[in-house]
Specification:
By secondary structure, the chain is mainly alpha-helical. The protein has 15 helices and no strands. It has a single domain, classed as Proton glutamate symport protein (Orthogonal Bundle), CATH 1.10.3860. Helix content is 75%, strand content 0%. The chain starts with 5 loop residues before the first helix and ends in a 9-residue tail after the last helix.
Length: 391
């Protein structure tokens, strides 16, 4: 199974879960759902640690000498991420109800499968506490590292992030299909599975269209700024787009993104600073996906997506997912805590989000890295003649 891609394994998990829930004895479904319950508890426990590991290390490793270039790139990348998320929300709100019947996921009071064993492993801290902790340590370590040349704490957070990445790559991602299978076995037992699956394809199409539309918007703005043909510039970024589809990792695509950005006339010194930084903090495609999927899940559950919930959700997404693009699927795992604390998603709804997001992870990553090229073009025009911009 390890040679089969994650998407095929997710599909197998969904199908297997539905078959177990529909046709096999209840005790088999309960065995599967017991794993799902225990795995869900582990996810709840690890989420604050993921937030601290990604954000603290991401902030700590930012350079201190880049000045205007660092601030400009970070601001532009974060602004692009927020704009993408809010645009996705306002577009999804009128469109999704056209093909999703509110509450069509099924009767929330329906009795589903129950686990044989229930073990509570509460997180050591809440999501917001983890965010504040990550900022305090990240900023503090960054200051100490560059002020006093102390590397002890920096080495600690780097190793801590390495441990978190190992947990995601060796535990969460491999067992995710089995977790999804248990969720769909429970949904099949309560009659929710087929209504939910019927929505997946249409949501996926909307996400891809929004990715394309946002990329065109980014490159039109960059083209106006640099006086270059935006569609020619976008075409030159296609190697990065197609590579990201396969790697599902912004970090792994950096060499190709660099080459594509330079092909668009971005100077070497700007490209080699902006592209790696943007690969860490520019998450427009991932945010579009998470917002659209979240709106769909809320509607499926019979709720009404509220701007008062989604605006802070989007604002914090841009921070929570820092450094997550280095890990395939890392963005959605890092965002699970926000789905629970801000949007009120249940364990089953978080599982749906995992399935929806992972099904298109490559496309979200491709949107992220292609947009990095537009940011590099704009930053190149801003600091074109400032050799002191990079220390």
């Amino acid at each position: 199974m390890k040679h089969i891609g994650l998407l095929p394994r997710l599909i197998i998990g969904i199908i297997a879960g539905i078959l177990v829930g529909l046709f096999l004895p209840e005790w088999t479904g309960r065995i599967l759902y017991t794993f799902t319950h225990l795995f869900g508890q582990f996810l709840a426990f690890i989420i604050p640690l993921i937030i601290i590991g990604f954000i603290a290390a991401g902030i700590a490793e930012l350079g201190s000498k880049a000045g205007k270039l660092l601030g400009g790139t970070a601001g532009l990348a974060y602004g692009s991420t927020i704009l993408a998320g809010m645009a996705a929300f306002f577009i999804a709100m009128p469109l999704l109800p056209a093909f999703i019947t509110p509450g069509s996921a099924g009767d929330p009071s329906a009795v589903g499968l129950t686990p044989f064993i229930e073990i509570a492993t509460p997180p050591i801290m809440g999501v917001m506490t983890a965010l504040v902790t990550a900022f305090v340590f990240g900023l503090g370590i960054n200051h100490i590292r560059h002020k006093n040349q102390q590397q002890v704490m920096f080495g600690f957070v780097e190793e801590f992030r390495t441990i978190i990445v190992l947990v995601i790559e060796k535990v969460i991602i491999p067992f995710l299909p089995l977790h999804i299978a248990g969720i769909f076995a429970d949904m099949a037992a309560t009659g929710e599975a087929f209504q939910t699956l019927s929505v997946f394809g249409r949501v996926f199409i909307l996400i891809i269209l929004l990715h394309i539309g946002y990329l065109i918007t980014q490159f039109v703005i960059a083209g106006i700024r640099t006086k270059k043909n935006p569609f020619t510039a976008l075409r030159k970024m296609l190697p990065a787009y197609t590579t990201a589809l396969g790697t599902m990792s912004s970090a792994a695509t950096i060499p190709v993104t660099l080459k594509s950005a330079k092909a668009n006339g971005v100077s070497e010194r700007i490209a080699e600073f902006v592209i790696p930084l943007s690969a860490t903090i520019h998450l427009a495609g991932s945010t579009i996906t998470l917002v659209v999927c979240s709106v769909a899940v809320v509607i499926l559950g019979g709720g009404t997506p509220e701007l008062s919930n989604f605006f802070p959700f989007v604002l914090l997404l841009g921070v929570t997912m820092i450094a997550a693009p280095g890990v395939p699927g890392g963005a959605v795992v890092a965002a699970l805590g926000l789905m629970s604390s801000i949007l009120g998603f249940s364990e089953a709804e978080q599982g749906l989000m995992l399935a929806l997001y992972m099904a298109q992870d490559g496309f979200g990553t491709a949107c992220n890295v292609t947009g990095d090229g537009a940011i590099a073009m704009m930053m190149d025009s801003v600091v074109d003649e400032e050799p002191e911009a990079i220390g």
